[in-house]
Amino acid sequence: MSTPAAATGARTAREVIVVGGGPAGSTAANFLASKGHDVLLLEKEVFPRFHIGESLLPIDVPLFERLGVELPRERFIKKAGAEFIDEATGETKTFLFDQALQGTPPYAFQVERAHFDQLLLRQAGKRGAEVREGVKVEGITFDEAGAGPVRVDSSAGAFEARFLIDATGQDAFLARSNRTVEPLKGFGRAAVFRHYEPLRPEIAAELYDTGNIKVLMIPDGWMWLIPLSGNKLSVGLVNRGTNSPEALAEATARSPLIQRLIAGTEATEPRIIRNFSYRNRRAYGARFACAGDASCFLDPVFSSGVSLGMLSAESVAGILSPALREGREADPDLMKAHAKKMEVGYRSFAGLIHRFYNAGLVHKLFFQDTEGEPLRPGITSVLGCDLWRDDNPFQQILLRSLPPEAWPE
User: Fold this and answer.
1) Residue intervals in the chain for CATH 3.50.50.60
2) Quick one: average pLDDT of 251-262?
3) Contact status, residue 288 vs residue 215, Cβ threshold 8 Å
4) What are the residue ranges of helices labelled H in 133-274?
5) CA-to-CA distance for 27 and 234, rounded, in angstroms?
6) Among 41, 180, 203, 345, which residue's Cβ finds the most Cβ atoms within 10 Å?
7) What gap in Å lies between CA 128 and CA 174, rounded to an integer?
8) Which whole number is the average pLDDT over 15-44?
9) Residue 399: which residues within 8 A CB-CB, separation 6 or more?
10) Mean pLDDT in the chain?
């Protein structure tokens, strides 16, 4: 049980408070603390804890180096690319990251988030942030004029900070408190998933050979197959209709590929995630910024969540650090350039996801060499989340053709 901050002698006045210890929160705390700032991170759970979002993207690899993080190969699976499969037609297509545009990192990782998130959180502490787990934030209060500090009331007492970073994931503390959540339409509505283990040795060897995520096309949605360390396979279902454990069981039973891979395994209890695809209409302001899913969450079909979350946190930290030193952190437009930068990433993936569901993108570009082949390196770079470059014609097509329901103006 947590005790009030005053009773423990904890300092209550800080430079920065980060709420949430997932990848975005840990990244922000890591970068700010490593630059000498006084950072307190409050996380409601005690790590390790289960989380979904197990397939990372190549853009994360150089980011890990900047964070001082090394992913041990015995716990995390190296991922060469992504395979798109339509069992109904027999079509398959593999996109390997080493065939992307020049400069895109050539691989990524599949991770169990319990271990991955704990690794990032511990590294933030090693870099100098004070990390407090099992502390639930109950209220956040801003000075109306922006002149005073931010007050954070929590299960461990009250704290104040010159700046607050909301990295509360899909809880989106500030967005839901301020009623600034805006749903994005035309994407999946929910995910239901479970793990299967232990895989037979020959199946594990087959899956670990490339570490690829497999995306299975089904009517009105898709399924993911993600190999995890310890002879595990994550299987999930996302669609635009009603989703349930029964729907996952039916889709799993209909897939010859899944049946072959999971033969002889035991399944965990299914889990469901809802609140899909939204953005925060007010993701920054005087003395605060939202990072990761607290700012925007997109359908996970192309595994963009962790990457965009960590990159957004790095961007916030990069702008905030000099502002703190110069006393500019109360500027309500401080994060305007950050928001504009991140919108490129969100809009790129929103365009890709919308086309995936509504314009036959997979069959027009992914499966048909005649249409997709000239754009193949650019498609692969987008799949790798290498989005802040000006030499990708495929990405420019996505940005130009983004419909208003996928990203309202």
Assistant:
1) 5-52+113-182+277-400
2) 97
3) no
4) 173-178, 201-210, 245-254, 256-262
5) 25
6) 41
7) 26
8) 98
9) 344, 347, 348, 351
10) 91
Residues pairing with 152 in the sheet: 140, 159
Integer CA distances (angstroms), 197 to 6, 82, 164, 372, in order: 46, 22, 41, 36
Contact present, 334 and 319 (Cβ < 8 Å)? yes
Sign of CA dihedral 158, 164, 165, 166: positive
Q: What is the pTM of this model?
A: 0.93
Residues 6+ away with beta carbon under 8 Å from 113: 50, 51, 52, 53, 54
Residue 1, pLDDT score = 27
Tokens of residue 113, six digits: 């988030």
CB contact at 8 A, 292 and 23: yes
- Comparing 282 with 184, the larger pLDDT belongs to 282
Q: What is the mean pLDDT of residues 394-407?
A: 89
What is the CATH class of 188-273?
A: alpha beta
Architecture of domain 5-52+113-182+277-400: 3-Layer(bba) Sandwich (3.50)
> What residue spans in the chain does CATH classification 3.30.9.100 cover?
188-273
pLDDT classification of 354: cutoffs 50, 70, 90: confident
Q: How confident is the model at residue 46 (pLDDT cuts 50, 70, 90)?
A: very high
What backbone phi and psi angles, to 5 degrees, belong to 376?
-55, -50
Surface-to-core class of residue 299, CB atoms within 10 Å of its CB (0-12 exposed, 13-18 middle, 19+ buried):
buried
pLDDT at 380: 95
User: With bands split at pLDDT 50, 70 and 90, how would you rate the model's confidence at 353?
Assistant: confident
Length of the chain: 409
**The residue type at 330:** A
* In contact, 385 and 58? CB cutoff 8 Å: yes
Please say whether the dihedral angle defined by the alpha carbons of residues 144, 132, 111 and 127, taken in this order, is positive or negative.
Answer: positive
